[in-house]
Design brief:
Layout (H helix, E strand, L loop, with lengths): L1 E2 L3 E7 L5 E8 L3 H4 L1 H19 L3 H4 L5 E3 L8 H14 L8 E3 H9 L5 E6 L3 E7 L2 E7 L11 H18 L5 H10 L11 H13 L10 H9 L3 H20 L9 E4 L1 H5 L1 H12 L6 E3 L3 H12 L7 H8 L11
Parallel strand pairs: 1-4, 4-5, 6-9, 9-10
Antiparallel strand pairs: 1-2, 2-3, 6-7, 7-8
Pfam families: BcrAD_BadFG
Organism: Nocardiopsis alba
InterPro entries: ATPase_BadF, ATPase_NBD, Euk-type_GlcNAc_Kinase
């Protein structure tokens, strides 16, 4: 299971990676949804996947892994009890070690190697050092108010600031600023005594009245503007890649050649940021930089490894995750 803040994905497979049943439900992060609702979503996803796997599936499960966003909350015994009860209600028998971090699963989705680093950049951003397939150290992941530098929120915030700056000058807007302004204040233009700086303040007030995390929706506009050669988008892309690289370097030893797995919407969907970041990460080391694969498949693979399959077999790993064992790194 890959239990995130928005979606929970459950997958039942054989020990050699053949899928038997899968299902989705809403997010199961107990921090975002509360333990009761998170547990309900987890039960729904697991139960549906097991139903689709066949009438004998529940009695045949030999291992289970849940990659849980907000897994650190399970230090609270009450929250852990809710989440373990979710497994029981779905038809599983918890052994006490089913829950791991979603970053551990993200790393496993990109490589069968037991050691390395995973960088997740979606709405937020966090880098995690992995040893023995478990989290040992993290950098950033501080949330949009304090950190998450290089995340979709951070990128969108920079795009909004640049748009307000250009609007206040009263000149022609760049492709990025034009796209952001059209999204926020469509059809509004400064007229008569309505000065450019007031137009910019109107833009800012509109954004301030909305949920802050909504700024993350501007991140794809930066990628598109970069494709059009917008210099302001190029600055944001390079800065985002620099922040993300810095987070990775904080959890690695200088010159380290262990793999780095890139996960999250920013790194999967934005080629300019991914390429700039890859260049920074491989400079002087040649460390392999890999894209994350199917995360629910990675959770199933970790469960299979716990059940005794060969964790060093790249072909078996690929059968679970969809990762290409012949593609050692993200092309720059």
């Amino acid at each position: 299971m890959d239990a995130g803040g928005t979606t929970t994905r459950a997958l039942v497979t054989t020990l050699d990676g053949v899928p038997l049943g899968e299902a989705r439900a809403g997010g199961a992060n107990p921090n975002a949804h509360g333990p009761e609702r998170a547990a309900e979503q987890l039960t729904e996803a697991i139960g549906s996947a097991l139903d689709r796997a066949g009438p004998t599936a529940r009695g045949s499960v030999v291992a289970a892994v849940v990659g849980l966003a907000g897994v650190s909350l399970l230090r609270d015994d009450t929250i852990r009890e809710h989440m373990e009860d979710a497994l029981v209600k779905a038809g599983l028998t918890p052994g006490g070690d089913e829950f791991v971090g979603d970053d551990e699963v993200a790393f496993a989705s990109g490589t069968p190697e037991p050691h390395g680093t995973v960088l997740i950049a979606g709405t937020g951003a966090i880098a995690t050092r992995i040893e023995g397939r478990r989290r040992v150290r993290t950098a950033d992941g501080m949330g949009w108010l304090i950190g998450d530098e290089g995340s979709a929120f951070w990128i969108g915030h920079q795009a909004a600031r640049e748009t307000a700056r250009q609007m206040s000058l009263g000149g022609e807007l760049s492709p990025l600023a034009r796209a952001v302004a059209k999204r926020v204040v469509p059809g509004r233009r400064p007229t008569g005594e309505y000065r450019p700086e007031e137009h910019a303040r109107d833009f800012a007030r509109t954004l301030t009245a909305a949920p802050p995390i909504g700024l993350a929706e501007f991140a794809p506009l930066v990628t598109e503007a970069h494709r059009q050669g917008d210099p302001s988008a190029e600055v944001i892309v390079n800065a985002a890649a620099g922040h993300l690289a810095q987070s990775v370097h904080q959890v690695r030893v200088p010159g380290e050649r262990l793999p780095v797995v890139l996960a999250g919407g920013v790194l999967i969907r934005s080629a300019p940021i991914r390429e700039a970041l890859t260049h920074k990460l491989t400079l002087g080391t040649g460390a392999p930089v890999l894209r994350a694969g199917r995360t629910e498949g990675a959770a199933a693979w970790l469960a299979a490894v716990n059940a005794g399959v060969d964790g060093g077999d790249p072909a078996l790993h690929a059968a679970f995750t969809g990762a290409d064992p012949a593609a050692p790194s993200v092309p720059a």
